[in-house]
Amino acid sequence: MHIVVCIKQVPDSAQIRVHPVTNTIMRQGVPAIVNPYDLFALEEALRLKDSFGGKVTMLCMGPPQAEEALKRCISFGADDAILVTDRAFAGADTLATSYALASAIRQIEKEQAIDLVFTGKQTIDGDTAQVGPGIAKRLSMQLLTYVSRIAELDLANRTITIERRAEGGVQLLKTRTPSLITMLENTNELRFATMPDMIRAARYPVRKWNKDDAGIEDLSKIGLKGSPTVVSKVFGPTPRAVKAEQIPVDKATPRDIAVNLIQAMFTQHPALEQDMLERAPL
Amino acid sequence: MNERFDAIVVGAGPAGNAAAYTMASAGLKVLQIERGEYPGSKNVQGAILYSDALEKIIPDFRDDAPLERHIIEQRMWVLDDESFVGTHFRSDDYNKPPYNRYTIIRAQFDKWFSSKVREAGALLICETTVSELLVDGNRVVGVRCDREGGDIFADVVILADGVNSTLARKAGFHAEISPGNVALAVKEILFMPQEAIEARFNITEDEGVVIEAIGKITDGMMGTGFLYTNKDSLTIGIGCMLADFKGSPNRTSPYAVLERMKKHPAIAPMIAGGEMKEYCAHLIPEGGFYAVPRVFGDGWMIVGDSGGFVNSVHREGSNLAMTTGRLAAETAIAAKEAGKGFGAASLKAYKAALDESFVMKDLHKYRDMPDVFHRNNQFFTTYPELVNRAAKTMITVDGVDKKTKEREIFGDFRQKRSLVGLMGDAFKLWRAFR
Amino acid sequence: MSDAPAPRKPAGRGGRNLELPEHLKAYKGVWVFIEHDRGSVHQVSWELLGEGRMLADTLGVALSGVLLGGPDDNLTAFANEAFTHGAEACYTVRDAVLDGYRNEPFTRGLTDLVNKYRPEIVLLGATTMGRDLAGSVATTLQTGLTADCTELKIDPTSRALAATRPTFGGSLLCTIMTLAYRPQMATVRPRVMAMPKADTKRSGAIIEDTLGMVETDIVTKLLDFIPDANTSKVNLAYADVIVSGGKGLKNPENFKLIWDLAKTLGGDVGATRPVVQSGWVAAERQVGQTGKTVRPKLYIAAGISGAIQHRVGMEAADVIVAINNDPNAPIFDFAHFGIVGNAMTILPALTEAFRNHFAIRRMKAA
Ligand SMILES: Cc1cc2nc3c(=O)[nH]c(=O)nc-3n(C[C@H](O)[C@H](O)[C@H](O)COP(=O)(O)OP(=O)(O)OC[C@H]3O[C@@H](n4cnc5c(N)ncnc54)[C@H](O)[C@@H]3O)c2cc1C
Ligand SMILES: Cc1cc2nc3c(=O)[nH]c(=O)nc-3n(C[C@H](O)[C@H](O)[C@H](O)COP(=O)(O)OP(=O)(O)OC[C@H]3O[C@@H](n4cnc5c(N)ncnc54)[C@H](O)[C@@H]3O)c2cc1C
Ligand SMILES: Nc1ncnc2c1ncn2[C@@H]1O[C@H](COP(=O)(O)O)[C@@H](O)[C@H]1O
């Protein structure tokens, strides 16, 4: 069995700060991490490898530093890692990204047939959840998004049955492999890397592919050129003009404070009072 | 058994990086283990880098190290509640490359240093804590990590695990750290537009200023405050002895002390409008000369904060850390070349090198300082007030003749502290600085 | 999304064409994909019609709904409801293979409709269905798609859709346009847009179409649908009153105070991510960037710092009350009413005071 897992290196958004004056992202010092959602995909792939044997290949498109993210995946037990990196990819939106990744996956396929491709649900920087579906369409693979559980994988008959999160319930879907799975978060718990794996990862020579290695045929489909969306403006959230009206707390008992809040709130929003009166249980 | 390394370095701060870089560059097979998510992730941000120590390790570090500003001016302020008396030293000499001191952001600097270490060929493993040293008899033979298959063996283990060095304590190389020997420092990074910093501190691009302050801001505790200019942020912080926080009659918290410093009328305008980016607290070993433990033994050496190598009087730490790291590494390299093993007998060259270097010489020079300041809190309470009042009396023009003013000032000092006390203080200081 | 910081003046960079080619100028009209499953339409579709109406009016074009479904789905009723929410027409495709959502036939259905009728804008809900479908359709049509938008406008100069969305976890917003491709696609999360008022007098035209697919063409089979056990429970995104608790409540015991107040108000309980991660409440109660977007009439936040990732999920609430013992907590920057105090003492007092207040009001009314 051969699984390809797509991961992205992203800035740790918990530590991102926006420069208060220029409204630009302060990337300096912000650590780059493996997109947290992708780790659920990785773990699921590793579990399949645990049960069926085979190989897990990691794929990432990004700047040279993204090698670190791939090495991290190796430490958890992935077998191979490929970084697709080329200046020509800069500025790619989801359409151009899925084109590049799909081309690279075709190249990987030439080395060894692929049974499944995994992506995360979404990235925490782009947040679009579109790259997975995009890759699937380009490779004419069956698309399985928001997968919460793999119920059955039948390698001999090339079928897979999965549970997929939908609005208000779970769909049970059966399809053919190769297919592309975008894994839902919190569906599994990432394993702890062993010390020998950590050392193997630290030494691992990540394969670096430029646009030719990745088999890019149409240069007008990658990078900025291949991106239909245009970012026309970036700005900070507008602060609310007035800050919260503070209910006085000095020398007031909790009861006074509560009563004063209700008073202030319902005086300014009489409709809310009526509404809440109707809703509150007797 | 797992594979074997020439050397294992525990910690990827300045000391560990210096050691790993030096050894790997000499062709040793080095494994470095860091518990943080990445080098620098656990380190207090915003600091002064002293070029000399790093130059001896990476001569051309200026080419690509993330440096914020080179320091051209040092201010020393003595603060009472509403005023300060101070000296400023600024020299255009400091504007002539190669520069002597820089402000840096530790998280970035450590990351850069670590990338050099890996380029030199050392293997770095992060998010892994060394839980204990593996010992065979008296001899350290490796480390145990908090991961499956975590026993790793090496000829020599260099402990660069910082001020808390639990490893050395567990192995019995150290005593418990005593609150009287460590300072607790808190600091913040405040964002500020570059232009505002340059206008406020009267500097141009790349130039930087350091302000050091002592006085009433520490609420009677032994400690100092500091303010540095980074590229587009300020580092502000203050540190006091841990024992003083514990014994503080007002139960003053480190955070309260920092807030107090930020509100001081001399400081507030310098930082006004700055937006807090991060906040952190960290220990600094300040026991000085007498607190340095045994730093080598069979198969092990201790470097950096872990060995208490900090010159608290001059706020130097990272340079001692890098220097001790380098000297330990050179000792290991020589031991390997000589082929006489890594026993205490061959590693004692490390101690000899330390004694020869500025590290032990400086620590020796100031050996009595911590104690003098610690036992005499008037340096942080009465004196700042007296000095400020004296300055005000002399400078305010109010029709009183200068002679009378001098008498007034002297009387003021006498009233607060006996003549014998004043003389004694002066003597103590002189002795400590000698 | 590209991860490079946005260029301020993108025009012409990288030699790319930012002019709309002649043959794409024929694309006209605004479409909303109307999402339905097991007999009911997702509210987000109506919210999108409200937004689509404004876009269509600005452009002076028609607003249409798109309904794909199986033989038993009541598409006509859904279309009529769409008219009351502002649509002038509805494109419907009814086919046995469209019974229950599957990516392949739905992608084909929507793609074919777009190619045939050429709308300039296509909007979908950012639900598990909408996102699955939007990404596939946009890739098939080779056009731009902007996900999770919080604001949709028409750019006056280019007359293109200017879609604004949070990026980098909500720390920044960016406005994205698809200039040289059509249609322009966007998804919007439930509850981000206001619900339009229904006007029962409105009606419109239904345009029926067909899908050239048979079941044997379709690889993926829908074996079963297992509805969530707790569907009867209030849906947080659509709750009118929410009492939310954060890490400031310190432990699960104290968190009960949140439930008490919510019960008294007949409202629902929300939480921040760390609370969910500590296991004090179920994940579906998380409000924020990686949780739900809510738009209640009243949002009471207790022991919540107001981090940007939480804020983006709740700031559209009509009235926000914040209880926090730190006067500098960011939540006070955007709450309407603030109480600087200990949530553990204020919450029970509030529960009591609300109960009394309602009792007195009811007595007066009686
Ligand atoms: C507020 C403050 C301001 C300072 N300002 C200055 C200044 O301006 N200039 C200056 O020169 N010095 C300054 N210092 C001192 C300086 O920061 C230290 O002396 C220096 O960082 C010591 O380096 P180190 O490598 O010994 O330790 P550290 O930098 O503390 O590094 C130790 C590393 O070891 C890791 N580690 C610890 N235990 C384990 C374990 N068991 N397993 C694996 N890894 C482990 C830690 O995560 C850490 O990364 C300041 C210190 C403080 C607190
Ligand atoms: C990629 C990413 C996605 C995220 N998505 C979400 C998301 O969807 N939703 C979300 O909520 N968070 C999200 N977060 C986390 C977010 O950044 C914050 O960490 C989180 O919202 C903080 O939760 P909190 O306010 O409960 O806790 P804290 O930040 O710890 O705040 C606790 C507050 O309680 C106050 N307090 C303490 N004691 C008391 C008391 N006795 N009485 C009253 N007040 C008290 C404190 O002053 C403080 O302000 C995300 C983070 C990342 C990185
Ligand atoms: N540059 C990239 N390299 C590899 N995989 C990616 C990249 N960008 C996105 N992905 C994958 O696509 C998923 C969805 O990304 P997004 O559409 O950006 O939210 C992610 O979770 C990744 O698995």
Quick structural overview:
The complex is a heterotrimer of chains A (282), B (434) and C (366). Chain A has 282 residues and is an alpha/beta fold.
**Could you say which small molecules are bound to this protein?**
flavin-adenine dinucleotide, adenosine monophosphate
Major sheet of chain C: size, sense and barrel closure? 7 strands, parallel
Unreliable sequence segments of chain C: 1-12
What is the CATH level 1 assignment of the largest domain in chain C? Alpha Beta
Query: What is the number of helical segments of chain C per DSSP (H or I, 4+ residues)?
Result: 8
| Alpha-beta classification of chain C | alpha/beta
- The averaged pLDDT of chain B comes out at 88
Keywords (chain B): FAD, Flavoprotein, Oxidoreductase
GO molecular function (chain B): FAD binding; oxidoreductase activity
Family (chain B): Belongs to the ETF-QO/FixC family.
Cofactor (chain B): FAD
List keywords for this structure.
heterotrimer; A: 282 residues; alpha/beta; Rossmann fold; 2 domains; 9-stranded mixed β-sheet; two-stranded antiparallel ribbon; 7 helices; 31% helix; 28% strand; globular; C: 366 residues; 7-stranded parallel β-sheet; 5-stranded parallel β-sheet; 18 strands; disordered N terminus; binds flavin-adenine dinucleotide; binds adenosine monophosphate
